[in-house]
Amino acid sequence: MSDYKIIVENVSAGYNSNIVLRNINLKIPQRKITAIMGPSGSGKSTFLRILNRLHELTPGAWVKGRVILDGIDIYDRKVNPTLIRKKIGMVFQKPNPFPMMSIYDNVAIGLKLNGIKDKKTLDEIVRRSLEIVGLWDEVKGDLHRPGTMLSGGQQQRLCIARALAVNPEVILMDEPTSSLDPISSMTIESLVKKLAEDRTIVIVTHNVQQAIRLADYVAFFYLGELIEHGPAVEVFTNPKHELTLKFVKGAIG
Amino acid sequence: MQLNKVLKKKILIDKAFTIILICAMIIYLVPIISIIYETVSRGLPALNLDFFTKPIPTAGEEGGGIANAIQGTVISIALASLIGIPVGILSGIFLSEYRELKITSFIRFINEVFHGIPSIIIGLFSFVLISKRIGFSVLAASFSLALIMIPIVTIVTQESLKMVPATIREAAFSLGIPKWKTTIFIVLRGAWQGIVTGILLSIGRIIGESAPILVTMGFYRWWFSGLDRPVSNMALNIFIFAMSPFQNWVRLAWGTALVLLVLVLLLNIIPRLMMLRREVRYE
């Protein structure tokens, strides 16, 4: 097996006549945390949404190039995006538990709607998923209560548990801590570290400190272009590009 | 000095405008309050146990009630809902979740036009389509009521679905859940309160309809005896009773009017209370 989980080749993307990303080439290493950083408007969220084919759902959106996941081009016409998305989970900027749904169902729904009905299996996976995100002890007595009743940080961990339940090999995170308080952010960050032990993580952040804390591998985007990428140590200690240096120092962004 | 003058003028205009608004408010409120007052004061004496449990008396007869009109109205609305609710909800889903299709905006426009068609025309349509074939019947009446319901349920369903944030759908997609399952099991669930609101409002609307009832089924004062036969209807009865020379029927008309007024008020207040709760949810 290759050391790379996802290989992005010559990808350009945008909406109608707007170009958001220009000719991106990036290899995302297996079971590592890859941080996508850059100032707002650099196209990093669009890049993330290309990896699980969410981008194309926006009216007017287009993508060119190839995204290869485990040797398969996910933009191949024969590929069903729903099957791709089963392998790639996503966590969003704002916690978004499903409305009118219990904590239990929020975690179990992905399995239920994918055909798993056995109550024991479901209970087991719900419990394990909530344990991984450190929510089990906090909510085990309230599993039937609505997911929206939890605090912001708890909701975000619930959303991560929801993604984990269907056992994805890759987890995409779009600024998962940007709407949370510092303590909840720290909890999420240590969770991300833990998840990377047996999963590939791609995390978008505009927070350089967060990227320094988390990333094994870094890609820096600026105005739709991939300016620099490489192992985190190299990019942060010895950036090759002036823009990267400025961003890391906090001069832009 | 100059500034002061300008300011005074502005204050004056502001006051004048406030007075105009208050006047408009009074012109609006007086009829509403007098309708409610009149209906309550004349309707209340008509209400007793017999009113709800006894059938409609023959012309000139004393006593009796509107029990068969209540039965008939419930049957008409139930039948109308049986067609109107599923069709309305499915259309609303289509208009909200399949926005990318070109035909959607055209259908949305048609739906809004349909919403504004006078109910008598819908009644006549149903008369030609059904009553002329199988006779004046509850089926024809319910069909016309369903046609009045559909655009309301459609619009409210569509609006409620739109209020469910896009990231909810995206989160479902990224669990590998196909679109149709996402729509039915996740998005619809989040919009449910709004949809129930729409259903209640549409029932509030058709419960008071009399024109389409008149042309599809006519006045009838007996119990339900088959889908191809008419039933009695509260709203239409008010018209027939009130126009009659019989004291007792006029009394029943006032009683029926009060009952309908209370029902319509409830059907409008309950959804509003539900809306209040919903706003808290999406903050």
Give the total of beta strands of chain B: 0
Average pLDDT metric of chain B: 91
What's the multimeric state?
Answer: heterodimer
State the helicity of chain B in percent bands. Answer: over 70%
Weakly predicted, low-confidence segments of chain A: none
The helicity of chain A comes to: 25-40%
**What summary fits the major beta sheet of chain B?**
none
Using the CA coordinates, give the radius of gyration of chain A.
Answer: 18 Å
Q: Unreliable segments of chain B (pLDDT under 50, ≥5 consecutive)?
A: 279-283
Please describe the topology of this protein.
The complex is a heterodimer of chains A (253) and B (283).
Chain A lengths: L3 E12 L2 E12 L3 E5 L6 H8 L9 E9 L2 E2 L7 H7 E4 L11 H10 L6 H14 L3 H4 L12 H14 L4 E5 L7 H14 L4 E6 L2 H7 L2 E6 L2 E7 H6 L4 H8 L4
Parallel strand pairs in A: 3-8, 3-9, 6-7, 7-8
Antiparallel strand pairs in A: 1-2, 1-4, 4-5, 9-10
Helix pairs in contact in A: 3-4, 3-6, 4-6, 6-7
Chain B lengths: L1 H42 L5 H5 L13 H31 L5 H14 L2 H16 L3 H26 L2 H8 L5 H28 L4 H6 L17 H10 L3 H36 L1
Helix pairs in contact in B: 1-11, 3-6, 3-8, 4-6, 5-6, 6-8, 7-8, 8-11, 10-11
Provide an overview of this structure.
The complex is a heterodimer of chains A (253) and B (283). With 253 residues, chain A is an alpha/beta fold. Among the domains of chain A are: 84 residues, P-loop containing nucleotide triphosphate hydrolases (Rossmann fold, 3-Layer(aba) Sandwich), CATH 3.40.50.300; 38 residues. In chain A, the strands form two sheets. Chain A has a six-stranded mixed beta sheet, with helices on both faces. A four-stranded antiparallel beta sheet of chain A has the order 2-1-4-5, with helices on one face. The mean pLDDT of chain A is 93. Chain B has two domains: 45 residues; 172 residues, MetI-like (MetI-like fold), CATH 1.10.3720. The radius of gyration of chain B is 24 Å and the shape is globular. The chains are: A alpha/beta (253), B mainly alpha (283). At the A-B interface, helix 2, strand 6 and helix 6 of A face helix 7 and helix 8 of B.
